[in-house]
Write a structure and sequence with these properties.
heterodimer, A: 13 helices, about 80% helix, about 0% strand, B: Rossmann fold, four-stranded antiparallel sheet, 9 helices, binds adenosine-5'-triphosphate, binds magnesium ion
Chain lengths: ~300, ~290
Amino acid sequence: MNPLPAIAAIPEHAARIAVIAFHAFTQLVRMKVFYFLAFFALILIASNFFNLPQHEGPEAAGVDVLRAIKSWSLGAMTLFSVVLSIVSTALLLPKDVEDRTLYTILAKPVPRLDYLAGKLLGVLLLVFVSLAMMDALMTGILHIRTNMVLADQMTFAEARGWPAEEMEALKTDILAQGPTASLQGAVLSVFLRATIIASLALLISTFSTSTLFTTIIAFLIYFIGHFQADARAAFLSQEAGMSDGILAKSVTLVVALVLPDFQLFNVIDAVIEGQVMPLVLLGKLTLIGLFYVVFYIIASWLIFAKKEF
Amino acid sequence: MSVSPPAVEIRHLVKDFKTSFRRQPLRAVDDVSIRIMPGEVYGLIGPNGSGKSTTMKALLGLVAPTSGQCAIFGKDSLKVDSRNEVGFLPENPYFYKHLSGKETLEFYGKLCGIRGSTLKDRVTELLELVDLTDASHRRIGGYSKGMLQRIGLAQALIQRPRLVILDEPTAGVDPIGSREIRDLIFKLREQGITVFLCSHLLEQVQEVCDHVGIIFRGKMVKEGRLEDLIAIEDQTELILKDADPGLIAEIEALIARDAKAELIRSGKPRTTLERLFLRETKRQETQPK
Ligand SMILES: Nc1ncnc2c1ncn2[C@@H]1O[C@H](COP(=O)(O)OP(=O)(O)OP(=O)(O)O)[C@@H](O)[C@H]1O
Ligand SMILES: [Mg+2]
């Protein structure tokens, strides 16, 4: 006998989860979700022309365009990743229940946790692939455009006879607006945020009765997540005068545990402005993402394990 | 080795469904016990809503019993490993319509941990068995009712389970297809596979099952070996071919002379509509066009 059967079974679970994940991914792909990429390409092309007429001075010319490309791309990525995460997660589970395909799956030796994890992973795979494709498009266009802006500015500066160090500084400034490592970090943050929201949608769909309900609640929590930190702070300061601050603290702690604080992801805006994203911050976001995914999956499992079909 | 455990062991199963807040819960299954030994073909019959599907779902761990236990080959139905050796065909099965028949079987095979060439061979074999080889690359979304039923059957057999649970395997299937499914059940029985099926088509149950249980409003009302249950102990049947009227008159006279025996009925046996249908369709098929 193996003394640790649970550990020995891990590859088996992983294999099964992978099967379900790839299946969910194929299912979503065959629903033709990738058509939205055409939209993204359009947005990207449009963003190229958006800020052109209103450049302030010759130094800023071009840099605005780079910012616009980043801002529009990351905005579209956020929109697509959140919508994809919520809608596809909200769709997959009720569909299996309604079509009664779930019977045939759970009648096979498939633990319910594996099923849930597989579905979630399938959605995340889809979101990841979509983001990777959008990222490649954005990076490519940004790269070309940055080089164009750089060349323009350099000839402009040369014509004016700028000193070498100022030219160098200008070059660094422009490159900071181009496809940097921080930009990739920002895309990764978008993915992490989508991960959290997808697992939240999974949790909701284990007890909701319709796709519509799941979608609405998930979007609601997503928006609440953008100001829950402020609300918590306000609540705490209001309660601070009272003696039993412990209660207030534990209430806010529970809220923070259950509802993710999406303000943490405001770092994406800073990256659009050309700031550097510290690696530590990315690590922190990864940990937070991981925490919520595990937390929501376990909660989903507790509900789903008791479900009858 | 001790005695092998029964393939199916359902003990005092009770299942209540919550209906609404005020009303009393609905008792779908009421103290049902079933024991099926390996190799048996067991038919559960009963009218609509009598709790057949619910009993099967409880056996597969899809619903949790209100009280009582279910086990498959001695393993508790609420545990995942009890489902290693069972194949299930739900009533009105439906599968992912974006997959082809072949992909569907591959998906279920992989869920059971079958991989590589073993899986490929098994899928080919099963597609052949349920006569879907030609349709194997078509999407399930375009399958007819009977094809769905057959792919469902193939899916249930993918990991060579020792127990097969079929919830109305012939519902919505035409007589030819339904005959094929029946033949398949015979084949499973020959291989020593235990079959637990339910239906309200009594004729079919009578043909394939060696044990039956009759369930009514959630209660098991009669159970046992089919032969014991349906034999009319005090009657004997004689069926003759090419008998001329003289012979029949002689036999009738013989019976009349006997003190105890009594002739209840004589005449031409009728073929069933089903047999007629099968014969005629077969004739059309074999005729050159
Ligand atoms: N999920 C459920 N929630 C509430 N009631 C249910 C549920 N499933 C079944 N029932 C009820 O339990 C009873 C038994 O249903 P079941 O499906 O087991 O019947 P059945 O014998 O399979 O009928 P049929 O021949 O029509 O398939 C029915 O009255 C049904 O309404
Ligand atoms: Mg039924």
